[in-house]
Amino acid sequence: ERAEVVGVTSDSKIAKVTLLDVADEPGIAARVFEDLARAGINIRLIIQSASSEHQARITFIPELESLDGTRELVRRWEAEGVARRGVIESDVAKISIVGSRLASTPGLAARMFAALAREGINIDCISSSEMKVACVISGDRLDDATRVVHREFFPEDEAAAATPS
Amino acid sequence: ERAEVVGVTSDSKIAKVTLLDVADEPGIAARVFEDLARAGINIRLIIQSASSEHQARITFIPELESLDGTRELVRRWEAEGVARRGVIESDVAKISIVGSRLASTPGLAARMFAALAREGINIDCISSSEMKVACVISGDRLDDATRVVHREFFPEDEAAAATPS
Ligand SMILES: C[C@@H](O)[C@H](N)C(=O)O
Ligand SMILES: C[C@@H](O)[C@H](N)C(=O)O
Predict the structure, then answer these.
(1) What is the position in ligand 2's atom list of the atom closest to the CA of B22?
(2) Rounded to the nearest whole angstrom, what is the distance from the C-alpha of residue B35 to the centroid of ligand 2?
(3) Best of A47, A122, A128 to mutate for ligand 2, by most ligand atoms within 8 A of CB?
(4) CA-to-CA distance for B133 and B10, rounded, in angstroms?
(5) Shortest CA distance to A121 belongs to which of A95, A156, A158?
(6) What pLDDT score does B161 carry?
(7) What's the per-residue H, E or C state across chain A?
(8) Inter-chain contact B121–A26, Cβ cutoff 8 Å?
């Protein structure tokens, strides 16, 4: 199977929640996502990079419409010491390339990152798998980002729109 | 489409590289992954959670067989100030649930995290998308993790093995 990018998708009806300084011990991630599940809050993305000194940081991307419910949970996690602090931002967007064997072809992800960099767009978060590389960026840059990433992988159809998801 | 988990996959021939304190400005992620691509290093997973105070942390999962090439690059990034420090660990493994509409059903990810927690398995990194939730854990816990996650989602076929990937 040849590695290739088959599409560019974007999502702007999202928020970003970062839980700072959660204890890096078994059961914390379960607690956070069980609480979100019980509150019926859909999550687009979960990202935790490696922790250090027994403190971890968990970022998740809820849908914008569930921001009130999410804010309530973050307050409760801070009060109960699940996280030292929770930071909620709603001016974010997600842009992704989708395809096959993406993760095992490092050049494809690099090309996406370079297209964003040339346009001066900072990458806030990254999450990748075999079939998708997703970047969280500032919401006001989504149109530029979609245009330049689309041009990078589909130069021949500059006019084609990205599929909003 | 109903949300469901269709499989559990695992991967132990991997390493974990964490770049600490990279500058949170456009072009850094592009530089790192262009260098990896040029060196022909395949990456299983890229994770960057939200940064703070203009410093970011990037974690990526190369294949174990390319550890020498990766170590060389990390040394160069440290020398050139791309990252303050790079931490390389090779006793890690990845376990994932795969299926459809996983990200929008928070309860499924929570069930995976809870199954690991009950077994006392700490989660080092998390990366999720619509079709996959992947956890990086300590390599010596992979067999236990595969057993308990498999039992959580496929209780009726306790005997079935997970698909190594
Ligand atoms: C931080 C969180 O992921 C923790 N390590 C856990 O296993 O739940
Ligand atoms: C840290 C890195 O992702 C940086 N923010 C970039 O855009 O390249």
Answers:
(1) 1
(2) 15
(3) A122
(4) 12
(5) A95
(6) 54
(7) CCCEEEEEEEEEEEEEEEEEEEECCCCHHHHHHHHHHHCCCCEEEEEECCCECCEEEEEEEEEHHHHHHHHHHHHHHHHCCCEEEEEEEEEEEEEEEEEECCCCCHHHHHHHHHHHHHCCCCCCEEEEECCEEEEEEEHHHHHHHHHHHHHHHCHHHCCCCCEEC
(8) yes
Residue B49 has its nearest CB partner, among A18, A43, A107, at: A18
Residue with tokens 């840059």: A141
| Residue whose entry in the numeric block shows the structure tokens 């940081």 | A57
A42, amino acid identity: N
Quote the tokens at residue B37: 């691509």
Other Cβ atoms within 10 Å of B145 Cβ, number: 24
Task: Name the token pair of A122.
Answer: 């900072």
Query: Ligand 1, residues A19, A20, A21, A22: which to mutate, most atoms within 8 A of Cβ?
Result: A22
Q: What is the pLDDT along chain B (165 residues), one digit of tens a residue?
A: 677 899 999 999 999 999 999 999 999 999 999 999 999 998 999 999 877 778 899 999 999 999 999 999 999 999 999 999 999 999 999 999 999 888 767 799 999 999 999 999 999 999 998 889 999 999 999 999 999 999 999 998 765 555 555
Q: Which residues line ligand 2 (CB under 6 A)?
A: A 117, 122-123; B 22, 24-29, 48, 56, 58
Contacts of B34 in chain A (CB under 8 A): 107, 110, 114
